[in-house]
Amino acid sequence: MSIVSRPLRVWSFVFCLFATLASSSSAQAQATSGNPFLQKQLSRLDLGVSAIGSINKSTSGTNYLGLDLDQKAGTTVGALVTIRYTKSPYIGGEFNYTYIRSTQHYTQNGQDAYLIGGVQSNASEYTLGYVIHPPHLLLTTQPFVSVGLGSTQFKPTPGGGQGLPARARMTYYYAVGLEKDFTPHFGVRAQLRQTFYKAPDFGQNYLAIEAQTWSLEPGIGFVLHF
Fold it and tell me: What is the mean pLDDT of each run of 10 residues along the chain (226 residues)?
């Protein structure tokens, strides 16, 4: 996949998913219009769909053979879907799903080690978090802060995954950002996330360096309020 086509495909996914969910949200709101309790619960829900970047830290360690190894994933783009439930400004929860495709490189002295060309893999993050919405700082723009944890599965692709198996890593994250609503049901969200996890090794001891790494994920997208 080319560098140009990948962002286009991510944005196509973002827009199509958002349009589909917006339609279903409208139908659901009509169906629950006669139930005050359901209306109240739905009013506390929102769904965000964003395009994100993925900027990854290079890390180093020693494998079981005592050889130094450097690991880094290529910079790329992906998609983030977030469902939030906000009871009050300081009480809220969220579920996050991210999808990112990148290539994990393992090098020694700047040259590929063991796996020529690296390991292309799909990274799918599943995390739960706590979110707060402090008082407005910039007119009608709403800030937010969230922290949480979960798991990220690194699944090698059929074409560039070197035949390696999928493996998951415990993942921690924080996010800060701003939201602005244009209608009672529609707004935009800009944010910066950072995730922390152990460098993936796909279950191979010669790739295992037991080192922590992180990904920085700036993002922008849309928010649907139910």
Answer: 48 57 54 69 90 97 94 95 96 97 93 92 98 82 96 96 96 96 93 98 95 97 93
Query: How, if at all, do strands 68-73 and 59-62 pair?
Result: antiparallel
Q: Is residue 30 part of a domain?
A: yes
Return the CATH number at 145: 2.40.160.20
80: its two tokens: 């983030």
Domains: count for the chain: 1
Residue 224 falls inside a structural domain: no
The residue type of 135 is P
Residue-number span of the structural domain to which 65 is assigned:
5-219
pTM, full prediction: 0.84
Q: What is the pLDDT of residue 226?
A: 83
Q: What is the DSSP string of 88-114?
A: ETTEEEEEEEEEEEEEEEEEETTEE-S
Tally of CB atoms within 10 A around 187: 19
